[in-house]
UniProtKB/TrEMBL annotation:
Residues 93-114 have a biased composition (Low complexity). This is Protein-export membrane protein SecG. GO terms for molecular function: protein-transporting ATPase activity. PANTHER family: PROTEIN-EXPORT MEMBRANE PROTEIN SECG. Its main location: membrane. The chain crosses the membrane at residues 6-24, 56-74. It is a multi-pass membrane protein.
Amino acid sequence: MSTFSIFLVLITIVCFLLIVVIMVQNPKGGGLSSTIGGAQMLGGVQKTTDFLDKSTWTLATILIALILLSSLSFTGTLSDTDSKIIENTGSSVPATNTPVAPAQNTPAATNPAQ
């Protein structure tokens, strides 16, 4: 499994978690905190709102860091040098750009039969 594939899986997981955390929140204050039932459960409404806010910012920061690190896997020190695509494209490119001399119209030498 290449480095980029690992980053792709991690980015997908973080995106899914970020979507879930954002969908739980309600912009009018009635999201998860209103369904808990009161201030006695899970430390109260304010603690739930703080947790959701901190987890949103944490997941967003992790997502940005993973995206930046995955871009390094293309050209940086984390790059995959065993790629078959790189080998195939590298061999099809001519090594030099020197033009080929046109063939001259000279008759072929004839050898008399002995």
